[in-house]
Amino acid sequence: MTTILQVMPKGNILIVDDNKSIISTLEILLGPEFDVVKGITNPNQIPTELRTGDYNLVILDMNFQAGINTGNEGLYWLNQIKKSHPDISVVLITAYSDVELAVNALKQGATDFISKPWDNSKLLATVKAAIQLNFSKKEVGQLKQKEKGLKLELNREQKYIIGSSPQLMKVMKLVRKVAKTNANILITGENGTGKELIAREIHRQSLRYQEVMVDVDMGAISETLFESELFGHVKGAFTDARENRAGKFETANKGTLFLDEIGNLSFHLQAKLLAAIQNREFMRLGSDKPIPVNIRLVCATNKNLEQMVADGLFREDLLYRINTIQIEVPPLRDRGDDIIVLADFFLKKFASKYEKHGLKINQAAQDKLLNYSWPGNIRELQHTVEKAVILSDASVLKPEDFFFKQILSAKFDDDHLTIEEMEKRMILSAIEKTAGNMSTAAEKLGITRQTLYNKIKKYGI
């Protein structure tokens, strides 16, 4: 068996100092610790070096011309580096008398400074920390590109907010009002009403629309992975932490963080989330270094958080933090003719998908759709229309082509059933429990989706 070892990069360093002995000393000290250590004496070579070399850190002297000790040259080149390569760490070399100047340079983007004469161990620690900062920035940048790619993919899927009912228009008016602020938003509503779409629309209309929106399903994160997923971790923080990793908060910096199903978060983890939101900073798991964060927070839930507060299941202070503005998404049954508008949208979508062009819904079927309560909301309507399209043999869909949850109610209370009757009831029960999701129902029944459709047709379900 061949074992492949992954070699982790140690970092590449560019030293810029007009004193060749300083460069030689640093090359001897840093050479064994890092992948590349290169020195140049002329700062005018910096742009070319940064274009041609993959550097993580620049160690930059503050003065180059003889007799000039203002530090302005160092500040000039610091700004040039940050303009062209904002993620590269810059550590300044300065004399004791220039410490105040170096502190001012930190405000302009320098990572740290090294005082002459230096202590070797402190210098190594400073350099390693600066390179690690660059690694972290690159990691966050890659994660953001991945999230942006996902955002583009979602756009290609063409997920729209569809409808013109007064109830929906009221929501969209509120969205327009709050989107350009940084207020924390809580989106509430039943399952399947489109809370995620509202969150995306808030981000799209916000001043952060060019940044990434990061989604987190709070109900899908286990308690043991909560801190690692949201705040990231450093190498060795726990058994499987083989490398540093940025969390969702760090990835969402300057953008929008969407915490879906916030009501599913356990009480003791709510305190950790509250601290990060309140302090606008967090620490990676296994680290004691605070990381500042600038995010727009949007949360969503189908639960009654006020009642959960009263029952001692949700922190009142966290509710106040996430609930600067609340947007209640109306259930589908309250949106009147939007039901037909959405049904037509899904009809065209699935007619194209399954190559059944020209399908229409007759008036009797529309009346049936309007009179149903839609407990599963838009998600249930989508599944209902998809199933009708798949099973239809005619170009016009009639009332009998649409199957609802209330029709699918079946109880196993008869001991004298035939195998076919039992199979029919099992199918009905599976469809009911999965809110009409045929793929999930087929999986629960242990059959393929096509087999399920064949049996639905056979039993006239």
Secondary structure: elements and pairs:
Blueprint: E1 12-16, H1 20-30, E2 36-40, H2 46-52, E3 57-61, H3 72-84, E4 89-95, H4 99-107, E5 112-116, H5 120-156, H6 166-179, E6 185-188, H7 195-205, E7 213-217, H8 226-231, H9 248-251, E8 256-260, H10 267-279, E9 281-283, E10 290-292, E11 296-301, H11 305-310, H12 316-322, E12 325-328, H13 338-353, E13 360-361, H14 363-371, H15 377-391, E14 396-397, H16 419-433, H17 438-445, H18 449-459
Parallel strand pairs: 1-2, 1-3, 3-4, 4-5, 6-11, 6-12, 7-8, 8-11, 13-14
Antiparallel strand pairs: 9-10
Helix pairs in contact: 6-7, 13-15, 16-17, 17-18
Structure description:
It is a single chain. By secondary structure, this protein is α/β, with parallel strands linked by helices. Helix content is 46%, strand content 13%. The strands form 4 sheets. It has a 5-stranded parallel sheet with strand order 2-1-3-4-5, sandwiched between helices. A 5-stranded parallel sheet has the order 7-8-11-6-12. The protein has a two-stranded antiparallel sheet with strand order 9-10. The radius of gyration is 30 Å and the shape is elongated.
Strand content: 5-15%
Biggest sheet character: 5 strands, parallel
The top-level CATH class of the largest domain is Alpha Beta
CATH architecture descriptor text of the largest domain: 3-Layer(aba) Sandwich
The CATH homologous superfamily of the largest domain corresponds to P-loop containing nucleotide triphosphate hydrolases
Overall, the morphology is elongated
Strand order, biggest sheet?
2-1-3-4-5
What structural category characterises the helix and strand content?
Answer: alpha/beta
Helix content: 40-55%
Mean pLDDT: 85
Uncertain stretches: 1-7, 152-158, 407-413
Total separate domains: 4
- Rg over CA atoms: 30 Å
Q: For the terminal residues, how far apart are their CA atoms? A: 55 Å
Number of strands: 14
| CATH T-level topology of the largest domain | Rossmann fold
